[in-house]
Amino acid sequence: MFNSLRGYFSSDLAIDLGTANTLIWVRGKGIVLNEPSVVAVRQEFGNRGGSRSVLAVGADAKKMLGRTPGSIQAIRPMKDGVIADFTVTGEMLKYFIRKVHEKRLFQPSPRIVICVPCGSTQVERRAIRESAIGAGAREVYLIEEPMAAAIGADLPIADPTGSMVLDIGGGTSEVGVISLGGLVYATSLRIAGDKMDEAIINYVRRKYGLLIGEATAEKVKIDVGTAWHDSEARQMEIKGRHIADGVPRSMLINSKEVLAALTECLQGIVTAIKTALEQTPPELAADIADKGLVVSGGGALLRDLDIMLREETGLPIVIAEDPLTCVVRGCGRALEETESLSDVFVHE
Amino acid sequence: MTTAHTNPANSSPVSGPGAQLAQARNDLHWSREEVAAKLHLSSHQIKAMEEDNYASLPGATYVRGYLKSYALLLGLSPASILDAHSKLTAKPVQQDFSNIAPQREITSRHHQIRFTTYLVAAIVVGLAVAWWVGRENRPPVPVTATAPVAPVPEAAAPVAEPSTAVTPLPEAAPSPAASPTTSSAPAPAKPAVPVAAPASPVAPPVTAAPITAEPKPLPITGPRAQLVLYADQETWADIRDARQVKLLYETVPAGRAVTLEGVAPVSVFLGNASGARIEYNGKPVDIARHQRGMMARFKLGEEAATVAPSP
């Protein structure tokens, strides 16, 4: 009863708890928060082994990534789309929930919709649910990411026609075939933005003997990265520590090299799409061949990804509008239409 | 694919995105089929886009995606094409998901079902209670006479006249119960209501008194017994005669005297033995002898029953 009273003073939230970024959508306001899923934790040493306190969350914490002293850890509590550090995830969620309820007198107790990768296990889903409840949620609904992406992209998921969606996030890429409000086929692969960054780091280290950080690799991917060999050529300067000399060096990297680094990841995604098409019933496959594949998530912003996918799969490719927020918008709509979309929520 | 071309659409007066796209395609001397092959769409979809006929195309998300791809292929600005599309079409209506809303079947948790269940249960319980109370209120035993015992000393008003409450059974041998009640027990206000009818096996007694538990027409096997119970304190009494007829089976309030008649021997059970006195055939009975704690359970008239001739 007290919870419902507190719920009266809370706004319902939809959260895209992503590996790279956490987005929060508030009923009646839209997307109010888009911050990196990073938490900076300070280790305080004391007589009893010390304690950990949260120093910064979100964008402030991301600036500390790779630049922290021994007493501070900049942690990404989500890994591969699921919780890697339960306590820190709870703290991060609590921080974000309070941030969107700044002007409230009472401690917020909202209803929350959170998306989960479709390949996540029961334990991983339970961890996300418990984490949200620990952060003060009154009720927690889980929704699978391909479904949320499809709703966010405003695909006709309720119609008796096949719709295919590819969501390339930070930790996972999700492929889903949806018809009549349900997932006919869904798969999740742990090849996404983080793996691409890692591939760029490895490529640069292997080819030039230069160690670069995750932040630099991400910038390379965004600025000069491409998925198609005929794309406009670009190049940028990167700085890192040379492995042999141990001193900082700078060098130029061009889009062809980035494409070479990303090829393996992109092939993994293409293979997942082809596998999904193989597993899809023929009638739905015909619908998909007619309408095409909708791509969402931050990975959809990789330059000329649509051309590469179109040539590799033979499908028309549609990049969703505002692909970064597609999933959280879908979660928000599911929250708004809880009654009609009650079947899309995941029950453990 | 994204090689820059001159943008003829910018200099074109046409406003619809389809016309801009068609004009740009013609400027490049591409056929619809060529464009369709490059975009992996069908030529009729290209035609529909160029004619701004979006009804034959899938939903707004797909249409805008196709237009964007087509614009990029032709080297046009996707933003201007999408703006033109937005101006041409009404604000896109969101997909309706109401048709996949599950039909909520009424389960036992539904408030209507719950209310009905509680109502039915309440009615059943109410009826059960009413039946039970009605059953309890029925006069359970053939009380021959009840009279309040005046709280005066015993010798206050001796009664020497015969008790008219005693009606000897025709079959029974004359019993001492028919003799005048000369007990020293005070009964000054005893109305001596003649209630008890003769318990005949042939004709069941018909009385005007509220007697419901009439003795069954069992053969009488013993002599008549008259018993007077004086309740100085409230006591539970269960008194049955030789036929197991409940002569008294109730809580007797304090200050009441009950006169009972039956067939000897009579079994007596008193809940509050110290608060009651009994006269059996005019003679006081020593209850204390049978008392166990507060209760007393004993039989009266066993000797008489054994010597009494059977009918």
> Strand portion of chain B, in percent?
15-25%
Helix content of chain B: 25-40%
Report the end-to-end length of chain A measured between terminal Cα atoms. 25 Å
Percent helix of chain A: 25-40%
- The ordered H/E elements of chain A are HEEEEEHEEEHEHEHEEEHEHEEHHEHEHE
Biggest pleated sheet of chain A: 6 strands, mixed
How would you characterize the largest beta sheet of chain B?
A: 5 strands, antiparallel
* Cα distance spanning the termini of chain B: 128 Å
Q: Which shape of chain A, going by the Cα principal axes?
A: flat
What is the succession of H and E elements of chain B? HHHHHHHEEEEEEEEEEH
Structural class of chain A: alpha+beta
Specify the number of helices of chain A: 11
Radius of gyration of chain B over all CA atoms, rounded: 52 Å
> Strand order across the biggest sheet of chain A?
3-2-1-9-10-19
Question: What proportion strand of chain A?
Answer: 25-35%
Question: Could you please describe the fold and organization of this structure?
Answer:
The complex is a heterodimer of chains A (348) and B (311). By secondary structure, chain A is of the alpha+beta class. Chain A has helices spanning 2-8, 59-63, 86-100, 122-134, 145-152, 193-208, 214-223, 255-279, 282-291, 305-313, 326-336; strands spanning 13-17, 21-26, 30-36, 39-44, 51-57, 72-75, 78-79, 82-83, 111-116, 139-144, 163-168, 173-179, 182-189, 210-211, 235-242, 248-254, 293-296, 317-319, 345-346. In chain A, α3 (86-100) crosses α4 (122-134). The longest helix of chain A is centred in the C-terminal third of the chain and has 25 residues, at 255-279. Chain A is flat and about 60 Å long. Chain B has helices spanning 8-11, 17-27, 32-39, 43-50, 60-74, 78-88, 111-137, 302-307, and strands at 145-148, 224-231, 235-240, 246-252, 256-263, 266-270, 276-280, 283-285, 291-292, 295-300. Helices cover 29% and strands 17% of the residues of chain B. In chain B, a hairpin with a 2-residue loop joins β7 and β8. With 311 residues, chain B is of the alpha+beta class. Chain B is built from eight helices and ten strands. Classes of the chains: A alpha+beta (348), B alpha+beta (311). At the A-B interface, α10 and β18 of A face α5 of B.
